Amino acid sequence: MSEQAPTRDHETKAGKKERRRVPFQPRQILMLALIWLVLVGEVNVVTVVGGLLLGWLIMLVFPLPPVDHSGRIHPWRLLVLVTHLVRDLAVSSVRLMIYAFSTRVPHPGIVRVPLHAKADLYEVNTAELASVVPGTIAVDVRRKPRLLYLHVFDLPDPATRQETIDDTWALERRVVAAFGSAKELADLDAAQVPSARPSGTDTPKGDA
Q1: Considering the entire predicted model, what is its pTM?
Q2: Where are the residues of the annotated region Disordered (predicted)?
Q3: Full 3-state SS string of the chain
Q4: pLDDT of 22 over the 80 cut
Q5: Chain mean pLDDT for the chain
Q6: Number of Cα atoms under 13 Å in the Cβ half of residue 65
């Protein structure tokens, strides 16, 4: 009896230690830091280091299982992604400011965008980054088939709706280009063809 007690105590401590072990996930931390920079609107040493520390803290407090990812981070393409995000953020903010002083009534609507990247990581990142831009927010994401439903502040005509789809596809490509492999990017380019564009404005429906 006395010999078994230390063994059980050792197993208990080992189990607790195993549960506390959190895998280091640099890609997730980097994406959280990127979102932080977009929200802050400033890029300097303090905001970059603060974003990385905040991302690490979030992953430490709310650990997630590792994401199966075959690509790698491409610094130059990541810079392109950040640059486009900052530009879209500025342009959309100006548009909303104009709407605030305009007498024209906006026509909000929901746009269904089929996504073509096969990894959950790219789908989630595309939805998150699309929601960061003022005037657009993701209201639903489907995995099979991969669909992203976006609520857009103003959809006056079909051309604006198609522009939203094209912009989201371009965002998805920049995400895959920044974090994916060459094969994933080639597969995405092959899938993003004009014939895959949906028609009409849709609302989310229940899964089949």
Answers
A1: 0.66
A2: 1-20
A3: CCCHHHHHHHHHHHHHHHHHCCCCCHHHHHHHHHHHHHHHCCCCHHHHHHHHHHHHHHHHHCCCCCCCCCCCCCHHHHHHHHHHHHHHHHHHHHHHHHHHCCCCCCCCEEEEEECCCCCHHHHHHHHHHHHHCCCEEEEEEECCCCEEEEEECCCCCHHHHHHHHHHHHHHHHHHHHHHCCHHHHHHHHHHCCHHHCCCCCCCCCCCC
A4: no
A5: 80
A6: 2
Residues of the chain with pLDDT > 70, as a percent, come to 77
Q: Answer positive or negative: Cα dihedral of 112, 107, 155, 138.
A: negative
| Residues 6 or more apart whose Cβ sits within 8 Å of residue 148 | 112, 113, 114, 115, 123, 126, 127, 130, 138, 140, 141, 142, 168
What is the per-residue pLDDT for 17? 47
- Ordered by start, the domain boundaries in the chain are 1-66, 82-208
Six token digits for residue 125: 């990142």
Q: Which residue has the tokens 């060459």?
A: 182
